[in-house]
Amino acid sequence: MVDDSDLDAARRRIASAATLEELRAVENDLLGKKSAIAAMNTRLGELAPEARKERGREINELRSALTGAVAARRAVLEEGDRSAGIAADRIDLTEAVRVPGVGRAARRRGQLHLVTQTRDELEDVFIGMGFTVAEGPEVETDWYNFEALNIPPAHPARSGFDSLYLKLGEPGTVLIRPHTSPVQVRVMEAQRPPIYSIMPGRCYRKDTPDARHTPAFHQIEGLVIDRGITFGDLAGTIEEFTNAYFGPDIHSRLRPASFPFTEPSAEYEVTCVICHGTGCRTCSGTGWIELGGCGMVHPNVFEAVGIDPEEWSGFAFGFGIDRLAQIRHSISDMRVMADNDLRFATQF
Ligand code: DAH
């Protein structure tokens, strides 16, 4: 005979099964072949027909009560197993932030390349001086790259740029730019003076890589156009920028040079950062290192973009960004900049 207290005890056993395995054992005890219910079933045949019917119904009720309790408990345990599985598989993406200083090398963050850092820094310096930043396309036409810059087709300066031409349009008319100077033309076309802009970007030349050259490199171009701008403004801007980027001990000087798009033109040099001016191997004993070109915007360039040279005057300059970084950080060979070697990249 099974009474209510037996049923309650059975339910408590089912409810307290802590794992699916324990539950299977309990289920076997209560409902399996050797269970009390199975025994009751076997003895049914001993009863008279009326009593047997009654007893049969009782056994069925009991069985379905226990089966229901087992199924309910199984559902709970299975859900728990799933949650535990999910919890075990979980990836904590906040870990790097929560555990500072632990396993640092294993989760080292990425960083900007030295050239990008240098470009950002140069932009900051010039923005601080009131300049805006402009950009132009890397694929240029003959007009922007040469003609508007006062370099007509037969001009010897064209060959000096070692330009890379594209098979596009008329042969020899479209190229990947060998300098950022064409962006000056685009800025002057897009905007009336006054103009105070820098134009950073990537350039390409058919150069053989060596310690000071890579075929893909970066320049930063500068252009100032306003009323009454003089060569003194150019020299002052260059010195200001030199001190801001290299520090107060490093100075600039301008030496006469020649560029088709400026007149007069100059080469921009800074105090050698290695010997501080006394002369060493890096500066070939001169105490100075050449960094770029500059000058007063040529009247022919103004004419090409429709700016009146009687009303406006201006200066321009162009330096290599990679070269500036190379000088400041005393990097002996420029080619490491493109080597993709983390031992170099992570030093900055
Ligand atoms: N574009 C020149 C070069 O790549 C550098 C340069 C010289 C830029 C004089 C200028 C400039 O703006 O005025 O060699």
Distinct ligand kinds: 3,4-dihydroxyphenylalanine
Uncertain residue segments = none
Tell me the count of domains.
2
Number of beta-strand segments? 10
How much of the sequence lies in strands comes to: 15-25%
Explain how this protein is built:
By secondary structure, the chain is an alpha+beta fold. The protein has helices at residues 4-16, 20-31, 36-43, 49-89, 95-98, 114-128, 142-145, 157-160, 181-190, 231-246, 299-305, 321-328, 342-345, and strands at residues 132-133, 139-141, 164-165, 174-176, 195-204, 216-226, 252-259, 262-271, 288-297, 313-320. The N and C termini lie far apart (85 Å). The structure holds 3,4-dihydroxyphenylalanine. 3,4-dihydroxyphenylalanine binds next to β9 and β10. 3,4-dihydroxyphenylalanine is lined by residues 179, 181, 221, 259, 261-262, 292-295, 316-318.
Which secondary structure elements does this structure contain, and how are they paired or packed?
Blueprint: H1 4-16, H2 20-31, H3 36-43, H4 49-89, H5 95-98, H6 114-128, E1 132-133, E2 139-141, H7 142-145, H8 157-160, E3 164-165, E4 174-176, H9 181-190, E5 195-204, E6 216-226, H10 231-246, E7 252-259, E8 262-271, E9 288-297, H11 299-305, E10 313-320, H12 321-328, H13 342-345
Parallel strand pairs: 1-5
Antiparallel strand pairs: 2-4, 3-4, 5-6, 6-10, 7-8, 8-9, 9-10
Helix pairs in contact: 1-4, 2-4, 6-12
Bound molecules: 3,4-dihydroxyphenylalanine.
3,4-dihydroxyphenylalanine is lined by residues 179, 181, 221, 259, 261-262, 292-295, 316-318.
